[in-house]
Protein: Glutamate dehydrogenase
Organism: Tibeticola sediminis
Amino acid sequence: MSQAASHTPAHALPSYLHSDRLGPWGIYLQQIDRVTPYLGHLARWVETLKRPKRALIVDVPIHLDNGTVAHFEGYRVQHNTSRGPGKGGVRFHQDVTLSEVMALAAWMSIKNAAVNVPFGGAKGGVRVDPKSLSLGELERVTRRYTSEIGIIIGPSKDIPAPDVNTNEQVMAWMMDTYSMNEGTTATGVVTGKPIDLGGSLGRREATGRGVYTVGVEAARHLGLEVAGARVAVQGFGNVGSIAAKLFAEAGARVVAVQDHTGTLYRESGIDIPALMFHVKQHGSIAGYAEAEPLPSDAFWDVPCDILIPAALEGQITTANAARISARLVIEGANGPTTPEADDILAERGTLVVPDVIANAGGVTVSYFEWVQDFSSFFWTEDEINARLVRIMKEAFGAVWSVAQDKKVSLRTATFIVACTRILRAREMRGLYP
Ligand SMILES: NC(=O)C1=CN([C@@H]2O[C@H](COP(=O)(O)OP(=O)(O)OC[C@H]3O[C@@H](n4cnc5c(N)ncnc54)[C@H](O)[C@@H]3O)[C@@H](O)[C@H]2O)C=CC1
Ligand SMILES: O=C(O)CCC(=O)C(=O)O
């Protein structure tokens, strides 16, 4: 990026913020560099997006069932709060790093601004393989982690939610722990809770529904008929399974599904409700007999029209981008495509609907949940879905227009819309003193 565009030269950045070791944070910095020339006078504030506002590393010690003590590393990063309290999920995964959580928090800032919900961006994680823990150990990790980050979260400060390997039960434990420590029941401290504890109807399905909604809009612009389209989905958890189900209900053929245990293929279309039932029983797609198993790398060669990465970051790379046959990639996951792979897809004429708009349905209904908790007045599922679809379509439409107008990718267009909103807020708030 042009140094003139910011106040602080890049070499003055703290070492852990440099983009040369290209992990998720480095990828995010590249995305900011790509948008900076389009920010006009607001580019003078862009440095604020290149560093997290606050990053907390916590030790999470628990008693294991065998009586020994184990320590896990946890993080909560608040990337930007110019537009409102921090908001973003919590991930439990053995490979979680501070750099990853910083990037995920930053993408939350962009996403929340892109759909114009009044939040900044935050994210959390614990470096643990939850599948190796008993239910009791998982509860102890969750409660200790919540107590440790309790100094920076709160209903009007920073509101966690589910992400990879966390769910409604984990949110219930987080809400309970925070409430015990505060001495009051604070339902608004997390979203994605069970319905009986102030959760919102439609939140569980919201991210997949948002992926489907913008996917249909993008397909319409491409002249791609969803009915009959071949869809490949990587990741069959909360996001991937619901997106697959909605595309199948619309008449698409979900020809391939991949999770961390393997890859399935069926040319005539996988029975998604049956596969979801299998996953509920067995915990993964492994052992599902009604589709052909494929080696995992073959997933990228599957002939398809629509590809939905809905697992982890860094999945579409220079190693596989040119093998993807889809005309449309809808990013359910956060950060699944590297910048170089983005360029390869663009050269091949593949339209990428970026994470920061495609998977914003989850946080949009989290916003509804937070509002409902504050007012203690709950909406019907139809009301929630209708508002969700309206917000997603409007946000996608706005981004589409910017992309056409400025002749940029949908990712850069989304960053233009979002960074403009964030930096305008930054500018209006001003700096102390
Ligand atoms: N849950 C939510 O509301 C939101 C989630 N996201 C993003 O969507 C993605 C998926 O999240 P969830 O569905 O919530 O997680 P989840 O934990 O429910 O499911 C994750 C899925 O990815 C699969 N997976 C993990 N590693 C894999 C690998 N190496 N190869 C293939 N598949 C693999 C797992 O087997 C599982 O099927 C993440 O990037 C998350 O940050 C984004 C917005 C909101
Ligand atoms: O629902 C939320 O608050 C955030 C969900 C999330 O972590 C994400 O959109 O990546």
Residues 204-337 form a domain with the Rossmann fold fold (CATH 3.40.50.720). The chain has two domains: 3-186, 204-337. DSSP finds twelve helices and twelve strands in the chain. The mean pLDDT is 94.
